[in-house]
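Mods, move this if it's the wrong board.
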Amino acid sequence: MVRFTVLASGSRGNSAVVCGGQTRILVDAGLSCRELFRRMRLAGEVPEKLDAILVTHEHQDHINGLAVTARKLGIPVYFTQATHRAWMRWLTPRRQMTYAQWLEQCRKQNAARCAETQIAEEEADPEDSSPLYDAQGLASSALEATTAPEAPGAPGVEASVEAPTNSDSSKKEDPTWLPCVEYFQSGCSFVIGDIAVSPFTVSHDAADPVGFVFSAEGVRLAVATDLGYISPNVKAQLKGVDLLLLESNHDLEMLRDGPYPWAVKQRVLSRVGHLSNEATDDFLENAYDGQAAYIVLGHLSENNNLPELARLGAERALSGRASLLANRLLLAMQHEPLAAIHF
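Not the wrong board. Structure tokens:
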């Protein structure tokens, strides 16, 4: 059985669960770990049975509970390399310092290194050492420190990055520590358990944003939110899917007359911003192939949209594609999970 559950969708947090066969994947973790678990149980999902977390991009409404959730469950997190780097930079921002502060930091580091060298020399036994032994020992230690076995990965997925073996206290101090990190590349499909994953590039102002098409048991599910416009490659990816989660972020008039600063309005309206109701309706009317059993409108803005506006526009766009088996329209909301969709 294949199942798709939207836990939250909107500017305050986004997350969904994809189930196929014996595999369960969390797509984004934009809510706190506690809230994710609460909503999963409310929707009939079991958090402890999750196998992996997939990340579309590094904006906070998609990764807010990522680290805590991954650590609590001990499961791998799948990123593109650029998204992982951007996430790490966001969690550990670099602090600027003056030249005097930099000199003092260098002095302390140099003093610490000298102290460590002196202690090591005092503890060494000259009778048991020789130049040959020291050279071989240093070479061996260096080789062991720099050589690690390559982890086999599925096509499109690079070798996993295991968390360093350090103490529990240092793990707690490092906000970027994860049980395991797996890298994938946009355009390269890979497999997690019983689910095939096809990531594709979307137009958004993030490091390397992607959407996903999931395939399991002959069912195809597409997730395409946070995109400024629907590019040709996205249109190609959204053909022949059985479920489509598509962004319908804002009403143009509400956004233009709304409370956002002009710079934010420009960002949302840009080709790396968010998809308007009008753009979504145009796609559904003119470029959508009409094959999805379910269309889920997501990432609705609380300030610049109304569910009724998004629904009415989409219903008008789909009016010429009436079908008993396809195009059932649903809205994913911010404050409660959507009932699970089964195939």
